[in-house]
Design goal:
The protein is an alpha+beta fold. The chain is 23% helix and 21% strand. The protein is built from 1 helix and 4 strands; from the N terminus they run αββββ. It has a 4-stranded antiparallel beta sheet with strand order 1-2-3-4, with no helix packed on it. β3 and β4 form a beta hairpin.
Amino acid sequence: MTIARPVAASAAAAVLAYCFTVSSFAQGATNDGAASSPPIFQVGDVLPEADVHIVTSPGVYGLGPEPPGSRYAVAHGMLIRVDAETTKVLSVLREQARPLD
């Protein structure tokens, strides 16, 4: 019986750690403790130019050249691709906390 208690305690601790991790993920917690929220825009939206940082060095972000007629940009914590003339969101690529260029 003495062996069962440490195993049970260890199993209980593992279950609690799992539940905490799943709960944090479901609530959008990140490693820095800040809550992650979905982008406030979606594909097709036209973003104000003041909200968009146009990427000047795609390679710094691990990207190749922009497809014709589009530009890479960072807006509201997301790396996106926008129409070069209208800043209409063409695709959302991934999270990007801040501009790198």
